[in-house]
Specification:
Layout: H1 3-7, H2 21-33, H3 64-71, E1 75-79, E2 82-85, H4 87-106, E3 110-111, E4 117-119, H5 120-126, H6 129-135, E5 140-143, E6 149-152, H7 157-167, E7 176-185, E8 200-210, H8 213-233, E9 238-242, E10 253-259, E11 265-269, E12 276-278, E13 298-301, H9 308-315, E14 323-332, E15 337-345, H10 352-362, E16 371-375, H11 379-383, E17 415-419, E18 428-431, E19 437-442, E20 454-455, E21 475-489, H12 491-496, E22 499-501, E23 507-509, E24 511-518, H13 519-529, E25 531-532, E26 535-536, E27 547-550, H14 557-572, E28 577-580, H15 586-596, E29 600-603, E30 612-617, E31 623-627, H16 631-650
Parallel strand pairs: 3-7, 15-17, 17-20, 27-28, 27-29
Antiparallel strand pairs: 1-2, 4-6, 5-6, 7-8, 8-24, 9-10, 10-21, 11-12, 11-21, 13-19, 14-15, 14-16, 18-19, 21-24, 22-23, 25-26, 29-30, 30-31
Helix pairs in contact: 3-13, 4-8, 4-13, 8-16
The protein binds adenosine-5'-triphosphate and magnesium ion.
């Protein structure tokens, strides 16, 4: 490398080991200039490749896509939530990454590579160190030999904001959007399903900076389009849904869900296509309550009725006539424990994500910034703060504060929240604050003070009416989250002091967005959606290879010669083609080709004598005889056709 060339590598910011877009482009360019030691096509002969398939699914696999990726030799488990991407998988991941890259580049975003090793100070500046190391505990954090705290990047808002703070001065530099594709580390509490929820996984993450919310919204809309194109091009059936922003923060956010039965997320949507949301975020109209059968107020014994169902049976009422009170323990980042009493109509459930968000909003009242933990305290946990046993199952919303033994880190009063569903309740039944007793026919403003803090913490449910059109009834589907885009606003720039100067010379915080795609999760989600009883059915655009030439009998010299020619011609025509030249029975080879999921199989079998080969399409299993002279053109046309269809569908 010449000196001027080396100098071009110094597009590296002082104090930050970021590989900037310019330097990264150089590295890629120079890599491609280094002549490969062997000029011929890389070997795609199964007899010489790393190719190990298993007959049986390993016991660790609980879902089809995980079992298939293990059986077909795509991945190997190295430890809990840690996988090796074997050569076939790596080809798929590179193809998915390339589609992602093309769509990102087309929006004007620039690729870079940020460090995975991140200093704690950045996370302390943003205020997320405790949330990520203690509350969620999802970040791998440790001390280095100089006793400095560092962490492995679960996400990169802090790193990128530090760069923006250094490098962005003026509105003239905006908007700016950088992205990267790299391994992320998250100490998931329950890693499972292979690449779906692993502890080291590949993500594309992008971060954009703007002068204001309007400019951010524009890029957010561009990302929405780019993401739809990516997923369409990968051949996925997906749905864009309104989402909770979680610990990442900010205002609006949207997730992209691949619909699949095993999905960990529940999506609620209306048949008119106007509304879909993650259940964590979804809103709806609750069903109308049934009229209460209790016409006058009384307190009476109700033995063995600690649950809504048992009370309904005992008292002969509907759940909607009962005021349910649920006790939570919230721990704020200051260490303060606050006991939260949530009232909600008996036929409804509290949504923990919505509750956590409401508590975060209330954090400043407790001189705190965020909620570290939210739990339903069991008997053991209650001992820490309760002066005497609580009448669990018989609690009313006015439970006396003297149940709490206050201390420096225990708030002396219950924080009483009421879900919107309780406001209109009349003549309701609820606990009597005495074990084994309830009150009936109670009313707000009579036996109970009207709720002071009314919030929406209700879980929307399938069968509810939609807010935008009550004639639309919510339906439910399971989804795998493959992408998530956020409008972060100024949360990070304000915390970390990342500002710019506008045209009038005023210094303002940068507006920010962030956009993630789970590249490795997406690859497995595709398998979850595209497989049959025999194996994987890759969409052509991300299949590790397009075609496989199978020689059923390797003692047949003519069959080998024809296969070798086809293998060479197909590859030369740009069709990525494998050659199954292994000394195996034909049945084994066909089974393997189906399992691995190569879109087109070409067999040099008996019909070779008539100048023909068998062409089998993996997705449909349709087999036909095609003349030896025509097969390369035929496969090329089909491969290109399949990729083009996906591209134009994305247009
Ligand atoms: P989840 O709710 O599934 O835990 P998340 O909301 O925490 O995911 P984001 O921070 O939005 O994830 O990350 C962006 C993308 O990275 C997700 O949409 C998902 O596709 C992927 N992803 C997140 N966690 C994992 C994981 N443990 N394994 C594989 N992919 C993941
Ligand atoms: Mg997410």
């Amino acid at each position: 490398m010449s000196l001027p060339e080396i100098a071009r590598f110094t597009h590296i910011l002082p104090n930050h080991s970021i590989t900037s877009p310019l330097a990264w482009a150089d590295i890629l360019e120079i890599q491609s200039l280094i002549p490969s030691p062997r000029q011929e096509t890389p070997t795609m002969r199964l007899s010489q490749m790393f190719f190990v398939t298993l007959r049986e699914a390993p016991a660790e696999a609980a879902i089809p896509s995980h079992a298939l990726l293990l059986r077909a030799g795509y991945i190997r488990r190295i430890g809990s939530g840690v996988y090796a991407y074997l050569p076939l998988m790596w080809r798929v991941l590179r193809k998915v990454s390339q589609i992602v890259r093309e769509e990102m580049d087309a929006t004007g975003a620039q690729e870079c590579l940020l460090p995975q090793l991140q200093p704690a100070e950045l996370w302390q500046e943003s205020g997320r160190w405790d949330t990520y190391t203690k509350a969620e505990g999802i970040m791998f954090a440790f001390r280095d030999r100089q006793d400095r705290e560092v962490a492995l990047g679960p996400t990169h808002e802090e790193v990128i904001t530090a760069i923006a703070k250094d490098a962005i001065r003026s509105y003239r530099q905006l908007p700016l959007h950088l992205y990267q594709i790299q391994s992320k580390f998250r100490d998931e509490i329950r890693p499972r399903f292979g690449l779906m929820r692993s502890r080291e996984f590949i993500m594309k993450d992008g971060y954009s900076f703007h002068v204001d919310a309007a400019s951010l919204k524009q890029t957010y809309a561009d990302m929405d389009r780019a993401y739809r194109r990516m997923f369409q091009r990968c051949g996925l059936e997906y749905r864009a849904v309104e989402a909770d922003s979680g610990a990442i923060g900010g205002s609006g956010s949207q997730e992209f869900m691949v619909l699949a039965e095993i999905g960990e997320d529940e999506v609620l949507y209306t048949p008119d296509g106007q509304y879909s949301a993650n259940v964590e975020k979804a809103i709806s109209l609750p069903p109308d309550p049934e009229p209460s059968p209790f016409t006058s107020y009384e307190q009476r014994p109700t033995p063995n009725t600690p649950t809504i169902a048992s009370l309904c049976e005992f008292a002969g009422c509907a759940p909607s006539a009962i005021l349910k009170n649920v006790l939570y323990a919230a721990v704020f980042d200051t260490g303060l424990l606050v006991l939260v009493l949530v009232s909600i109509r008996g036929d409804q459930d509290v949504n923990d994500v919505k509750l956590q968000n409401e508590l975060t909003k209330l954090a400043p009242e407790f001189d705190a910034a965020t909620v570290l933990a939210l739990t339903v305290p069991d008997a053991d946990a209650q001992k820490k703060w309760a002066t005497r046993p609580l009448p669990l199952g018989y609690i009313a919303c006015n439970l006396n504060d003297d149940y709490i033994r206050p201390s420096e880190d225990i708030h002396p009063q219950f924080l009483r929240l009421a879900d919107r569903t309780v406001v209109a309740m009349k003549n309701f039944a609820t606990g009597a604050n005495v074990g084994g007793e309830h009150v009936f026919g109670a009313n707000w403003g009579e036996q109970f003070d009207r709720p002071q803090r009314v919030v929406d913490v209700r879980t929307a449910m399938v069968g509810d009416r939609a807010v935008h059109d009550p004639s639309q009834i919510l339906e439910s589907a399971r989804g795998i989250e493959v992408g998530h885009i956020f409008q972060l606003g100024t949360k990070y720039s304000q915390a970390m002091g990342a500002t710019y100067t506008n045209e009038q010379g005023e210094e303002l915080p940068l507006s920010m967005g962030c956009y993630g795609v789970g590249v490795s999760r997406l690859a497995q989600a595709t398998v979850e959606q595209c497989h049959d009883k025999d194996g994987i059915v890759w969409p052509v655009a991300i299949a590790p290879y397009h075609a496989i030439v199978v020689v059923p009998n390797i003692n047949d010299a003519a069959a080998i010669a024809a296969a070798e020619t086809l293998y060479r011609d197909l590859n030369q025509a740009g069709i990525e083609t494998l050659l199954d030249d292994r000394d195996e029975r034909a049945g084994v080879k066909f089974k393997d080709a189906d399992l691995v999921g190569i879109p087109y199989r070409i067999v040099t079998g008996r019909s070779l004598k008539q100048g023909k080969v068998e062409l089998v399409e993996r997705a449909t299993k349709r087999a036909e005889e095609v003349s030896l002279d025509a097969v390369v053109a035929e496969v090329k046309q089909r491969v290109e056709g399949a990729i083009k269809t996906m591209l134009s569908a994305a247009e």
